[in-house]
């Protein structure tokens, strides 16, 4: 069996077995959906499909957070000694890192698909064509964010540090991406952060699909916060998707290189922490 396929199958099996992890993510996403539905109800009057607007943001946020958090799996593998066993096998390190990125992306996409199915029962109105397009966007974005997560995990190689740093990154990027709050409501001084945030463009193309904005003129897309005017240069939803792909290629390459260079022999398992704490 191909090593990458074997790693993907193993990580997917662990995901399926961890029902609390899957259910917990869905419950948290539904909680955020209900909470923001009440908080943002008054500001959604200008949108023709406020339910679709909110739910699409929650779904892509779920994919984003799941993709990043899945990198804790590789930290667990280091902590319990599994990674050292893999390293002595005749497997290239690039295959190990690629397998972990792809498995993380698949898990995040599956989580997003589950959210789509659940959301349909609470008023998310989409057709089969939209679902297929949304799954494609979720997979592309999940690969990008999984690569970013693995890059951070490989640099830190410490679970507490990874949780702290990833939270510091995820929370600001989530709230300035438009996933919860429309970018048109974000203060001007935060706009540079909005524009360099890859989640902004993923949220944009996701809403573009879920709200069927294909026939809207560019001026209307700018007004709705789906397209962005950056110093006279307009970024459309599809251009944003290309930017996301380029960011994904960069971090995929960077994470594979960094993983190849990492010295996991210096990581020692801590016997005092149950469940796999470790120290260097």
Description:
70% of the residues lie in helices and 4% in strands. It contains 12 helices and 4 strands. The strands form 2 sheets. A two-stranded antiparallel ribbon has the order 1-2. Strands 3-4 form a two-stranded antiparallel sheet. β1 and β2 form a beta hairpin. α3 (50-69) runs parallel beside α7 and α7 runs antiparallel to α10 (198-210).
Helix/strand/pairing class, anyone? mainly alpha
Multimeric organization: single chain
Radius of gyration: 19 Å
How many structural domains? Answer: 1
E-strand count:
4
Mean pLDDT: 80
Shape: globular
Give the helix/strand layout.
Layout: H1 3-17, H2 19-39, H3 50-69, H4 72-79, H5 82-87, H6 93-120, H7 128-156, H8 159-175, H9 191-196, H10 198-210, H11 218-224, E1 228-230, E2 233-235, H12 237-261, E3 268-269, E4 278-279
Antiparallel strand pairs: 1-2, 3-4
Helix pairs in contact: 1-6, 2-3, 3-6, 3-7, 3-8, 3-10, 6-7, 6-12, 7-8, 7-10, 7-12, 10-12
């Amino acid at each position: 069996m191909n090593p990458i396929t074997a790693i993907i199958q193993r990580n997917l099996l662990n995901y399926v077995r961890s029902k609390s992890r899957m259910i917990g993510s869905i419950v948290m996403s539904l909680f955020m959906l209900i909470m923001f539905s009440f908080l943002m109800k008054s500001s959604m009057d200008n949108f023709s499909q406020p339910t679709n607007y909110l739910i699409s943001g929650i779904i892509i946020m779920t994919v984003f957070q799941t993709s990043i958090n899945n990198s804790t799996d590789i930290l667990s593998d280091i902590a319990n000694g599994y990674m050292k066993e893999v390293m002595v096998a005749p497997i290239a390190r690039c295959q190990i890192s690629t397998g972990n990125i792809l498995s993380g992306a698949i898990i995040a996409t599956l989580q997003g698909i589950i959210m789509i199915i659940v959301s349909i029962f609470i008023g998310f109105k989409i057709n089969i064509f939209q679902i297929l397009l949304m799954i494609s966007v979720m997979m592309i974005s999940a690969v990008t964010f999984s690569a970013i997560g693995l890059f951070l995990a490989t640099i830190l190689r410490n679970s507490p540090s990874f949780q702290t740093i990833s939270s510091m990154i995820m929370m600001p990027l989530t709230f300035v991406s438009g996933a919860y709050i429309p970018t048109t409501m974000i203060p001007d001084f935060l706009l540079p952060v909005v524009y360099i945030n890859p989640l902004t463009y993923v949220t944009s193309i996701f809403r573009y699909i879920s709200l069927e904005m294909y026939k809207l003129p560019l001026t209307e897309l700018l007004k709705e916060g789906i397209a962005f005017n950056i110093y006279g240069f307009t970024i459309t939803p599809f251009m944003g998707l290309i930017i996301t792909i380029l960011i994904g290629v960069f971090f995929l390459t960077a994470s594979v290189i960094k993983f190849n260079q990492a010295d996991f022999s210096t990581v020692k398992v801590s016997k005092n922490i149950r469940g796999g704490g470790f120290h260097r």
